[in-house]
Amino acid sequence: MKKILIGTVLAAVVAFAGYMYVKKENGGAAYRTAKVEKGEIVDAITATGNINAVTTVSVGSQVSGTIQQIFVDFNSRVRKGQVIALIDPRLLDASVTQARASVDSAKAALERAQVGVIDTDRTNRRNRELVKDGFVAQADVDASQTAWEQALAQKRSAEAALQQAEGALRVAETNREYATIRSPVDGIVISRNVDVGQTVAASFQTPTLFSIAQDLTKMQVDTNVDESDIGRAVIGENVTFTVDAWPEKTFTGTVTQVRNSPIVTQNVVTYNVVVRVDNRDLLLKPGMTANVSIEVKKFEDVLKIPNAALRYRPTVKGSGDEGAGKRTENGKGKEAGGQRVYLLGKDGKASPVRIKTGVSNGTFTLLEEGNLKEGDVLVTGESQGQKAAGNASPPGMGLGRFR
């Protein structure tokens, strides 16, 4: 009785396997499918970039010294002319005092020179009168003339020294004013690079103390667009982008500048396309990475094909494709004779349809020519069982041990 039961079960299994094998051989395969849709498709340039403030001012110091006070911190709002830091002014005050003393000394030297000019001029005029009556020699007249001319030269030298001293005083006073660091614009402090007690050395290079963003309600995205796409980027095009901080929110902007200066990184050439963005909600922050899509052209109410259907090629016989197995031409991944997709009929068989496509958005591709309509079912892939059918053994083989 037990042997009869086992025999019945084996017979049922063999019969079922034979049925499935015949079904697959007759083209009744299980396919993954997608439908031809109608809607809009956008031809876009994809790129990445960084969000920056439209205007960022680096505030430095023209004088060296020790930071004595800091009046602002990160995210502080500042007004133009507001004092934001103070450098220890004692050495600068001493320089101003020294320069003023030099000016006073130069003024005194000028006064001495003026007195000398008056004295030598008086002596020279007197000798000129006396030489007429023979009371003085001509040599005395010549000497007094020379002394007068020398006094005039000394006066001009003293005047120049006074101007030089006054210039040095103005430099010292200006440096003293530079000890007070003021904001050059209205904005928000986005970076503070110094602390109280830190020494600032401005002898060789101006150090950056603060970075101030002029207006964070208006931002820009500096994108790196590949050289193959830069020809399609035009000022005024609409832009959408996302950031990791707000993955579910899509931001919009407009292309305002396409810069001609190339950016070369490891022999890859890109160009900076500047996108202006409204940031009234202050959700975007400087330095964020943006995934940008620049809209080149929008096609509305058109037929579009899933890209997976364009990639599909049958791997078993009976698909109706006489060219199965000749999948590529010169290794470029295109069918000889044009593009094709496989339309799934009501009988469960896939038949090839030649088409011509247009732009793609990465998910769908525009259908320009082809005998397809909205709702047609296209094959995008095959089940694992279908892929293995070509290598499967006919039912019943390997079961001899049960006989």
Tell me what the structure shows:
With 403 residues, this protein is of the alpha+beta class. 29% of the residues lie in helices and 37% in strands. Strands 2-11-14-13-12-15 form a 6-stranded antiparallel barrel. Helix 2 packs antiparallel against helix 3 (138-178). The relative contact order is 0.19. Mean pLDDT is 84; it is low at 22-28, 322-337 and 389-403.
Low-confidence stretches: 22-28, 322-337, 389-403
Radius of gyration: 45 Å
Q: Quickly count the helices.
A: 5
Tell me the quaternary state: single chain
Task: Name the helix and strand elements from N-terminus to C-terminus, one letter apiece.
Answer: HEEEEEEHHEEEEEEEEEHEEEEH
Percent of residues in helices: 25-40%
- What distance lies between the first and last C-alpha atoms, to the nearest angstrom? 16 Å
Q: What structural class should be given to the helix and strand makeup?
A: alpha+beta
Q: How big a fraction of the residues is strand?
A: 35-45%
Give the integer mean of the pLDDT values. 84
Q: Biggest sheet, strands in spatial order?
A: 2-11-14-13-12-15
Largest sheet: 6 strands, antiparallel, barrel
User: How many strand segments?
Assistant: 19
Structural shape? elongated
